[in-house]
Amino acid sequence: MKRYQPNILKTGRTRRLNPIFGFLGFLGFTAFIGGSWSRFVFLGFFGFFYESKMSDTLIDERYRENKNKAQLMALKAASAVMLAALFFLPVGELFMSVQYLFQMLHILTALSAALVIFLSEYLLYRYDHDEYDNDMKEC
Predict the structure, then answer these.
(1) If we measure between CA atoms, which residue out of 60, 40, 44, 61 comes closest to residue 107?
(2) Which residues contact 55 (CB under 8 A, 6 or more apart)?
(3) How far apart, in whole angstroms, are the C-alpha atoms of residue 17 and residue 67?
(4) What pTM did the predictor assign?
(5) For residues 7-34, b (16+ Cβ closer than 10 Å) or e, as one string?
(6) What is the pLDDT of residues 71-91, one digit of tens each?
(7) Less Cβ around it within 10 Å: N or C end of the chain?
(8) Helices 98-138 & 61-92, crossing angle to 10 degrees?
């Protein structure tokens, strides 16, 4: 069990997070500078910005439903990216060497992981605030 979970279970609220942690997403651009292509996964840390906007939110049934829906949509999007990559990369075998194809697959895998991390937080924020806006219009 993670360190912050007992506090979340006790209070029934999400963890508090500073929006400045969203700048950690810029670490993903270090993959262009050099090193491993798997650093692209750090682009998912831009999701900390949206998680911080949702900090100290009451975890109720609507929040859990929105979180499950957001994670499902993020996983569907990442799966679509990976399936498209696996479909189109063999076509590149005619034009590129196997080493470049492996690097492209490595990059697309890291980017799809970053997409899941970011998109799940972003969609959770959007679903929560869209429902809030719709509730306010009805009043």
Answers:
(1) 40
(2) 14, 15, 16, 17
(3) 17
(4) 0.77
(5) eeeeeeebbebeeeebebbeebeebeee
(6) 999 999 999 999 988 888 877
(7) C
(8) 150
